[in-house]
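seq as requested:
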Amino acid sequence: MRTLKNTTATTSLRLGMMLTLALSLNACFKSNPPVHTERYSLPETSTPQTTTATHTLVLNRIQLAEYLDTDRIVVQLDDITLRPARDHLWVDNLSQELRRGLRTCLASRLKQTAVVDPQPGLPTSARTLNITIDQFHGQMQGYAVLSGQWQFSGAGQPLPSQAFKFTTPLAENGYPALVRALGQDLDLLCDQIASQWPASP
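C-alpha coordinates:
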Protein backbone atom coordinates (compact mmCIF):
# COMPACT_ATOMS: atom_id res chain seq x y z
CA MET A 1 0.00 0.00 0.00
CA ARG A 2 2.87 2.36 0.86
CA THR A 3 4.51 1.61 -2.53
CA LEU A 4 1.25 2.40 -4.33
CA LYS A 5 0.99 5.74 -2.51
CA ASN A 6 4.58 6.62 -3.37
CA THR A 7 4.02 5.76 -7.06
CA THR A 8 0.86 7.86 -7.14
CA ALA A 9 2.64 10.81 -5.52
CA THR A 10 5.56 10.56 -7.98
CA THR A 11 3.18 10.45 -10.96
CA SER A 12 1.28 13.48 -9.67
CA LEU A 13 4.55 15.39 -9.18
CA ARG A 14 5.68 14.63 -12.74
CA LEU A 15 2.33 15.70 -14.18
CA GLY A 16 2.50 18.90 -12.18
CA MET A 17 6.00 19.68 -13.43
CA MET A 18 5.01 18.99 -17.05
CA LEU A 19 1.97 21.25 -16.71
CA THR A 20 4.09 24.02 -15.19
CA LEU A 21 6.65 23.73 -18.00
CA ALA A 22 3.91 23.80 -20.66
CA LEU A 23 2.34 26.90 -19.14
CA SER A 24 5.74 28.61 -18.92
CA LEU A 25 6.52 27.93 -22.59
CA ASN A 26 3.08 29.13 -23.61
CA ALA A 27 3.57 32.39 -21.71
CA CYS A 28 7.02 32.81 -23.25
CA PHE A 29 5.68 32.50 -26.80
CA LYS A 30 2.88 34.96 -26.04
CA SER A 31 5.25 37.58 -24.62
CA ASN A 32 7.99 36.97 -27.26
CA PRO A 33 6.28 35.74 -30.41
CA PRO A 34 8.52 34.35 -33.20
CA VAL A 35 9.73 37.21 -35.42
CA HIS A 36 9.73 37.31 -39.22
CA THR A 37 13.17 38.42 -40.38
CA GLU A 38 13.52 40.26 -43.69
CA ARG A 39 16.83 40.47 -45.54
CA TYR A 40 17.63 43.13 -48.14
CA SER A 41 20.18 43.67 -50.87
CA LEU A 42 21.05 46.98 -52.51
CA PRO A 43 19.37 47.47 -55.91
CA GLU A 44 21.43 46.11 -58.77
CA THR A 45 22.99 48.41 -61.33
CA SER A 46 22.75 47.36 -64.96
CA THR A 47 25.90 45.50 -65.99
CA PRO A 48 27.94 47.41 -68.60
CA GLN A 49 28.62 45.93 -71.99
CA THR A 50 31.91 44.06 -72.14
CA THR A 51 34.70 46.19 -73.59
CA THR A 52 38.46 45.91 -73.67
CA ALA A 53 39.73 47.45 -70.43
CA THR A 54 42.61 49.87 -70.89
CA HIS A 55 42.67 51.08 -67.27
CA THR A 56 42.32 49.40 -63.88
CA LEU A 57 40.74 50.81 -60.72
CA VAL A 58 41.32 48.81 -57.54
CA LEU A 59 38.49 49.17 -55.03
CA ASN A 60 40.83 48.97 -52.10
CA ARG A 61 39.60 49.86 -48.61
CA ILE A 62 35.99 50.48 -47.56
CA GLN A 63 36.07 51.63 -43.95
CA LEU A 64 32.77 51.84 -42.07
CA ALA A 65 31.90 53.78 -38.94
CA GLU A 66 31.73 51.23 -36.11
CA TYR A 67 27.95 51.46 -35.70
CA LEU A 68 27.49 50.49 -39.37
CA ASP A 69 29.80 47.48 -39.30
CA THR A 70 26.95 44.98 -38.95
CA ASP A 71 24.31 43.17 -41.00
CA ARG A 72 21.50 45.25 -39.45
CA ILE A 73 19.92 48.24 -41.17
CA VAL A 74 20.31 51.34 -39.01
CA VAL A 75 17.67 54.03 -38.47
CA GLN A 76 18.21 57.42 -36.82
CA LEU A 77 15.31 58.03 -34.44
CA ASP A 78 16.11 61.64 -33.51
CA ASP A 79 19.03 64.05 -33.50
CA ILE A 80 21.11 61.87 -31.14
CA THR A 81 19.69 58.33 -31.25
CA LEU A 82 20.53 55.63 -33.80
CA ARG A 83 19.18 52.11 -33.58
CA PRO A 84 19.97 48.96 -35.59
CA ALA A 85 16.82 47.16 -36.71
CA ARG A 86 16.12 43.81 -35.05
CA ASP A 87 14.31 42.08 -37.90
CA HIS A 88 15.48 44.00 -41.01
CA LEU A 89 18.93 42.88 -42.09
CA TRP A 90 21.31 43.12 -45.04
CA VAL A 91 21.91 39.90 -46.96
CA ASP A 92 25.60 40.17 -46.01
CA ASN A 93 27.51 42.47 -43.71
CA LEU A 94 27.17 46.03 -44.95
CA SER A 95 30.83 46.19 -45.99
CA GLN A 96 30.26 43.33 -48.45
CA GLU A 97 27.00 44.86 -49.72
CA LEU A 98 28.76 48.17 -50.37
CA ARG A 99 31.78 46.58 -52.05
CA ARG A 100 29.57 44.59 -54.42
CA GLY A 101 27.37 47.60 -55.16
CA LEU A 102 30.26 50.00 -55.72
CA ARG A 103 32.14 47.59 -57.96
CA THR A 104 29.17 47.15 -60.29
CA CYS A 105 28.08 50.77 -60.12
CA LEU A 106 31.53 52.18 -60.93
CA ALA A 107 32.09 49.67 -63.72
CA SER A 108 28.87 50.87 -65.37
CA ARG A 109 30.16 54.45 -65.39
CA LEU A 110 33.87 54.04 -66.09
CA LYS A 111 34.09 52.78 -69.64
CA GLN A 112 37.16 50.80 -70.62
CA THR A 113 38.09 50.51 -66.93
CA ALA A 114 38.25 47.26 -64.99
CA VAL A 115 36.98 47.82 -61.43
CA VAL A 116 38.44 45.06 -59.28
CA ASP A 117 39.10 44.07 -55.68
CA PRO A 118 42.72 43.92 -54.44
CA GLN A 119 44.46 40.82 -55.80
CA PRO A 120 47.96 39.66 -56.77
CA GLY A 121 49.28 40.44 -60.23
CA LEU A 122 47.59 43.79 -60.82
CA PRO A 123 49.47 46.29 -63.02
CA THR A 124 51.66 48.75 -61.16
CA SER A 125 49.93 51.57 -63.04
CA ALA A 126 46.54 50.71 -61.47
CA ARG A 127 44.93 53.43 -59.42
CA THR A 128 43.34 52.55 -56.11
CA LEU A 129 40.23 53.91 -54.42
CA ASN A 130 39.77 54.14 -50.65
CA ILE A 131 36.37 55.03 -49.19
CA THR A 132 35.35 55.91 -45.64
CA ILE A 133 31.63 55.73 -44.84
CA ASP A 134 30.45 57.80 -41.85
CA GLN A 135 26.69 57.58 -42.48
CA PHE A 136 24.58 55.04 -44.35
CA HIS A 137 21.23 54.87 -42.64
CA GLY A 138 17.63 56.00 -42.63
CA GLN A 139 16.16 58.99 -40.83
CA MET A 140 12.72 59.04 -39.24
CA GLN A 141 11.92 62.22 -41.19
CA GLY A 142 11.80 60.05 -44.32
CA TYR A 143 15.31 60.28 -45.78
CA ALA A 144 18.25 58.03 -46.55
CA VAL A 145 21.66 59.57 -45.89
CA LEU A 146 25.15 58.63 -47.10
CA SER A 147 28.28 60.56 -46.17
CA GLY A 148 32.03 60.13 -45.86
CA GLN A 149 35.22 60.66 -47.87
CA TRP A 150 36.91 58.98 -50.80
CA GLN A 151 40.42 59.18 -52.24
CA PHE A 152 42.24 58.06 -55.35
CA SER A 153 45.84 56.91 -55.14
CA GLY A 154 48.23 56.22 -58.02
CA ALA A 155 51.84 55.04 -58.15
CA GLY A 156 51.83 55.04 -54.35
CA GLN A 157 50.90 58.71 -54.16
CA PRO A 158 47.50 59.63 -52.63
CA LEU A 159 45.53 62.38 -54.32
CA PRO A 160 43.44 64.91 -52.36
CA SER A 161 40.49 63.32 -50.55
CA GLN A 162 36.94 64.27 -51.46
CA ALA A 163 34.09 64.60 -48.98
CA PHE A 164 30.55 63.64 -49.91
CA LYS A 165 27.05 63.71 -48.43
CA PHE A 166 23.86 62.66 -50.21
CA THR A 167 20.31 62.70 -48.86
CA THR A 168 17.49 61.02 -50.79
CA PRO A 169 13.81 61.17 -49.75
CA LEU A 170 11.96 57.88 -49.38
CA ALA A 171 9.26 57.26 -51.97
CA GLU A 172 7.07 55.70 -49.26
CA ASN A 173 7.27 54.34 -45.73
CA GLY A 174 9.02 51.08 -44.96
CA TYR A 175 12.38 49.36 -45.16
CA PRO A 176 12.16 48.41 -48.88
CA ALA A 177 11.81 52.11 -49.73
CA LEU A 178 14.73 52.93 -47.41
CA VAL A 179 16.99 50.35 -49.08
CA ARG A 180 16.11 51.69 -52.54
CA ALA A 181 16.83 55.27 -51.41
CA LEU A 182 20.19 54.18 -49.98
CA GLY A 183 20.88 52.59 -53.37
CA GLN A 184 20.18 55.94 -55.04
CA ASP A 185 22.63 57.61 -52.64
CA LEU A 186 25.26 55.06 -53.67
CA ASP A 187 24.55 55.83 -57.34
CA LEU A 188 25.18 59.53 -56.64
CA LEU A 189 28.48 58.68 -54.99
CA CYS A 190 29.52 56.67 -58.05
CA ASP A 191 28.59 59.62 -60.27
CA GLN A 192 30.84 61.89 -58.20
CA ILE A 193 33.77 59.47 -58.27
CA ALA A 194 33.39 58.79 -61.99
CA SER A 195 33.31 62.51 -62.79
CA GLN A 196 36.79 62.88 -61.29
CA TRP A 197 38.29 59.69 -62.68
CA PRO A 198 41.43 60.69 -64.60
CA ALA A 199 41.39 59.94 -68.32
CA SER A 200 44.78 58.27 -68.09
CA PRO A 201 46.58 56.57 -65.20
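Helices lie at 2-31, 94-109, 175-195.
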